[in-house]
Specification:
Growth Hormone, Chain: A; mainly alpha; globular
Length: 448
Amino acid sequence: MNLYLLGATLIAALGGLLFGFDTAVVSGANDHLRESYQLSPFWLGFTVASALIGTIFGAILAGRPADIWGRRTVLFWIAVFYFVSAVGSALAWDWYSFLAFRFLGGLGVGGASVVSPMYIAEISPARYRGRLVAITQFNIVLGILLAFFSNYTIAGMNLGFVEWRWMFGVEAVPALAFFLLLFLNPNSPRWLVAQKRMEDARSVLERLGTDKGSVEQELREIRESLDLEHHSIKEPFLQKAYLRPILLAVTIAIFNQLSGINALMYYAPHIFKMAGAGAESALLQTVAVGGINLVFTMMALAVIDHFGRRNLMILGSIGYIVSLSSTAWAFYTYGTEFNETGSIIVLISLLVFISSHAFGQGAVIWVFLSEVFPNRIRARGQALGSFTHWVMAALISWTFPIFAAQSGGHTFAFYASMMVLQLIWVIVVMPETKGVPLEELQRKLGIK
């Protein structure tokens, strides 16, 4: 693997780091937001979900601009959205302005979930593609850990009323760095071919490396997969020819959120408080969750191109089922009267849960979404998968405080039952995509 390819990947994956930071930072500010704006559980859920509503629009709207102006140009705009959202959320003058700036950040997150992994998939040779696209997930997890640690650090500084503003504001620094570093990245060679900029595409492929060892052969296969003489890059997306990849993308995205992962990401301190932890201990346990998430993501990144996407999903699904079932049992058993034993059971169960997610769905989803669509519709396909993911994330995050207030046991039992269905889907339906060039994978899925 050459250094130019690795450098371009790491820079593009910074969109993932900001994605993780932006989505998780609110977990440390929930109590402050509830007190500052006098929010009920319903309106607290809506406030947390405001960024997620932005991600829905960001995901569904990112595909077309990525086709027209290029993946790299859209990443520049995403960096701008992150920066303005961070500064605006920190300086928000009322609840409505806070919602608006969080929504803007959500646009950036939704766009990054589409464009960062898609860009990396399009610049990567097949033999490295899984681990390189998974760097996006690694950076998402690193961003989550940084958000948890940042929240814990700021909470320990005793800043009083402005504490939550600093939690949001620190994101402006990495957002600015992301914007500046993008000037070092090339355009996607597959996007350049679609624009008939063959010399530019050839130059980029010569620097990035190819699957076949021949730049001309790679260019020929990209042109054949686009087949723009018989297919337009603007042709209808929702058609029978693309039904299989569409169903695969939508299903994996739905299951990703039915695990309850975003409930843990956004409400981790609240969950640990429900299980009897004190405020400071809850924030520290949340940092432990972020650390475990990072470690198991690194493990998945190391083996995803050898072990395969399906095997990781199977192992992760089994871990989900065990950990979520034990969490549900703990809430059924202890209710609101948790002792030290019950608190430890919940902590261990949720650490197993987050490690199962990091090693399975978390590592696989963005890689899989970036692989299953043909070159000519990849941007729109990735947008659909991300759109589905974020719609489900908003629903889970909005409803969790309401359902958890009624019964923590029922809530986690529901998530566990959904993961049983995911395991069945992986075994029966999900194809393996490791090591297959994007153009060859298109043929394997029966798409001409």
